[in-house]
Amino acid sequence: MAISIRTNFSHCISSLQEQILEMATCADTMVADSVRALIEGDVELVRQIVQRDDIVDRLDIEIEAQCLNLIALQQPVARDLRVIGTALKIITDIERIADYAVDIAKIGRRIQRNNEIYRPLVDLPQLTMLTRDMLRNALQAFIQHDLVLVEKVIQDDDAVDNLYHEMREYLTHVITTDSSKGLVALNVMFAAKYLERISDHVVNIAERVYFIEKGELHQLAASHLTNSDEAMN
Fold first, then answer.
1. How far apart are CA 171 and CA 12, in angstroms?
2. Is the residue at 233 inside a domain?
């Protein structure tokens, strides 16, 4: 009987992981398409991205319900409870990532409505690629219990932060010196900031994977430590 219960619980955890991957894949695609919609001025793609956010929200609710049922019916302890608790945290971060994708897409629509066109003032696709790689690695770390991937996510967050700060500095210069590019530069800066915030949510996921495997909660990224220090001062 105990083996049967354990087998059923393992099946439920596998199902939970699959749902989280489905949710994360949807959010990841939204991020990629949101930047494409911004660059190409594709208003129809913006509409599709906004609709896809409803899918992420639905999965968020379904996965939360599944987690709560597992806690109530299976009464997990130790590592199993950490897995379920981490799943609850992960879906919150994924839902916020999807929200940022919608925000980026709407920036493209805003530029269009102001009769402007996107100008490649900074390498926004590069920042997008780095952020999406982080998300995929964090999710694989969760599924594969891989702390090496956790460390890679943390390292890549530094690269995202550095690239974002370079972009912010340059775009600020453009805004203050070239009025003909000011509106686009300001909106691109917002998009870059949203991508940087997405990377922060990915770091949250990686830190929770570390918690599952080690049983200890730590802020692993330098950016998170800096934010904590600033909050205390």
1. 48
2. no
Nearest-Å Rg of the Cα atoms of the chain is 20
Could you give the angle at which helices 124-144 and 182-214 cross, rounded to 10 degrees?
Answer: 10
CA dihedral sign, ordered 8, 10, 13, 14: negative
**Residues of the chain with confidence (pLDDT) below 50:** 1, 228-233
pLDDT for the residue numbered 6: 59
CATH number of the domain that residue 11 is part of = 1.20.58.220
Among 85, 92, 94, which Cα is nearest to 212's? 85
Domain that holds residue 144: 2-227
137 found inside a domain: yes
**Judging by beta carbons within 10 Å of its beta carbon (0-12, 13-18, 19+), is residue 176 exposed, middle or buried?**
exposed
Q: Which amino acid is at 30?
A: M
Whole-prediction pTM = 0.89
Q: Indicate the Cα dihedral angle 154, 160, 166, 172, nearest 10°.
A: -120
What pLDDT, on the 0 to 100 scale, is given for residue 129?
97
CA angle 223, 227, 231 (to 5 degrees): 170
Look at the chain and report how many structural domains it folds into: 1
Decide if 232 is inside a domain: no
Helices (H), the chain: 2-40, 43-74, 78-113, 124-144, 147-177, 182-214, 222-232
Say which amino acid occupies 160. V
pLDDT score recorded for residue 231? 46
* C-alpha distance from residue 18 to each of 12, 21, 22, 24, 159 (Å): 10, 5, 6, 10, 29
